[in-house]
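To close the section, here is one more complete example, presented without commentary so you can practise reading it yourself. The ligand is adenosine-5'-diphosphate.
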Amino acid sequence: MTTAAESPERRTTSVEGRASLPIERKLPLLILAILTLVLATSLAISYYEVRRSAQVSAGERLTRLSRSLASLMEQQITGRLTAMRRVALDTNVQNAFATPDREPSVAAKRAMLSIMMPSDSLTPITLWTASGRLIGTLRLEQAADVERFRATLAEQIATSDSQHVTKLTSMNGHAGSWQSVPVHKDGQLLGFLAQERRFTASPRTLQPFRDLIGNGIDFYIRNAGDSLWTQLSGLIVPPPARTAEFGDTLEVLTTAGRDNLASTTPVRGTPFVVTLEQPMDDILARPRAMIRVLAVLAVVLVVVGGLVAWVMSRQIVRPLTELTGAVESFAHGEYSKRVHGGDGDEIGRLGSAFNRMAEQVEDASLKSSRAVEQLTKSVATQQFLADASRLLSMSLSDQNLLTDVARFCVPTIADYCSIHLADDDGTVRRVETTHRDPEKLEALRALLGHYSYRLDGPGEVPGVIRSQLPLIVPRIDHTTTLSTAPDEETRALLHIVRPTSYLCVPLVARGRSVGAISLTMTDSGRTYTPEDMNLAMELARRTAVAVDNALIYRRSLALRLEAEAASNAKSDFLAKMSHEFRTPINAMVGYAELLEMGISGPVTLAQAKQLARIRVSGEHLTGLVNEILDFAKIEAGGMRIEAANGTASDAVDAALALIRPQAVNKGVELDSKPVNGDRVEYVGDPQRVRQVLTNLLSNAVKFTPSGGKVSVRWSFGERPGTGPVANVPHWASIAVEDTGVGISPTDMDRVFDPFVQVDEGYTRAQGGTGLGLAISRKLAEMMGGAITVESTLGQGSRFTLWLPSPDSCTTTVA
Ligand code: ADP
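Output:
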């Protein structure tokens, strides 16, 4: 991150992304601009005011002076005309009109000469008749002058008859005008007393005027509304090129490109006006000088103000700029930036608050990134272990499993991996080796071939197996490793394989160490950490369990195969034995019958009796052998069961027919009847149902003393309680109940086991193999049914055969 101090040329970027000047520059520039504007405005206003007041005071002065001069001229002209009027009253002068062709009398001339001025020598006082004739022989300088006077004579008669001053006219390059007064006698106009007055003032004459108006002001006399401009000296000058009004009373006259302020006052009693003008440059010289000084002062002020503003803005803005930079870095995820402590003002407090916030955020960010890192690691670890578990669960062979594990470790947690197992004879056998780089695998195998271990011998692997503790060597020093090599070939191989970090974990299952997993890093540059060790330990633990399970599975498989083989051998043996027994027994019974029938000669009564016993015993023996054969067949899975519909009463009748002689012989009463409806149907093999019932009835008769009773009941309904076939809803049941010896509760389940006879003594007396109930239950189960027993010792027993009814089958199938 860079601050404004580090990169002064930096432009800040606004929210819209538009680049703008940094505030550190903007602020002094703004202050400078405002200062300049204010100073320039006040300068302009001051100049305007000063200039105006200079013009006003100059104007007032010009007005005052022009009025004074006008009044001075008026006084002079009035004085002159008064003197002329006095001369006009002179009778000598009046008499001169009586003889206009002659010279006026001496007295008249004297009267006229009395008002002559030294400057009048060129323009004598003349007398004119009312018709415009010059009296006397006086010759005027130029005829044009006479004509000019005559032209004004009519003007005078028309306007006034007391006195007259004509407009200024050019007279020999000088301006002049005629002044005249009328001459009356007895109320009648005789003519005029007139004199031409020229402005030919000498410097001496002009001096009083010059003293009055001062230098730098020009004075003009002119006719009102005329273009003839005359200086006080009488010189005619060109009129101004341009005339503009200035205020109510003044004008600005432009002559030869220069502006002059002018004031004009009419001279009363005359047709001309007095104009005083002063060059505008002279009037404005002082305001301009003043404004120049002020402007210099303003520039100095702007420079000083700008400097002050720059320094102040640096002081104010620098911390802000630093803070802004820090906040921008903060926004970009860089939390380590801090601002320097302020002066305790608002910016300083803001900076401190920012620092505190940045510290907290940095701390939180650090924690969260650590948490994320840990989470990622933990997820990766969990994923690794989950993959390992999946792999381990797929392999049932311990050898394949270890190969898979070794391959699984490379390259995720090792550059190469080898797995050793401890054999019962104390050798430590290497069962698998894998390398990340297939080209180095051969060298690695060759290298490991140089190291053979024994459980009680030296080496890292036997040590780990013995101690059941992991071993970690984060960094392996190659030179040291090479120095321990026993021979040159091992050294060369070590040079190729070049282990850099090593980790060995034991394979422990059910407290017993079965081997170890060795993980090694080489040129990938990774090193093992305690975290890696924990992961490897967990992998080893799972692997050991899987290896143990695989071993158990292998052993149990072998045992099962062994047991199956033994069972098959037993069944084979029983089947063969039964067959072998049956052949001689059948021959024996057959020959006994032949003898009994007397085919081989007559037999005595005693012999016949004995022959009958031989036959009965033989038949009994056949029954026993058949039972053994049936059992053997069932055990070997060779018994075929038919699935057909049968009725309970048929099965009961058939079984009773076989048993009845036995019952009659023993004096046991037989009774049979249905419980709920005669026709109770079942699904099963009728022949096997009959066999089961015969066995149950035979037992009942057998274990019921003489005088007792055996009852058979069959019914259709639902089976009460729970049991192996409790999920079948409808049943056909046939119960065989006796009043015999009964069975104790402890023996109730055992009676169905093969070759079990509960009461050995009594049973011996009754004969039997202990297979009848075992076969019956198997057959019932093969038909989808069951046999249950209820009994009270000394009171009797009830065996019930349960078979599915066709409804159940339909329901089940449905
Ligand atoms: P056995 O061939 O000995 O009859 P079983 O398997 O049929 O073999 O019977 C096993 C044993 O169950 C019999 O030895 C007997 O002790 C007992 N047993 C069977 N049925 C009854 C019964 N109805 N009353 C009393 N005990 C019986």
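Once you have examined the tokens, check your reading against these statements. The longest helix spans residues 530-596. The pocket of adenosine-5'-diphosphate is lined by residues 699-700, 703, 738, 740-743, 751, 757-759, 763, 768-774, 797 (CB under 6 Å).
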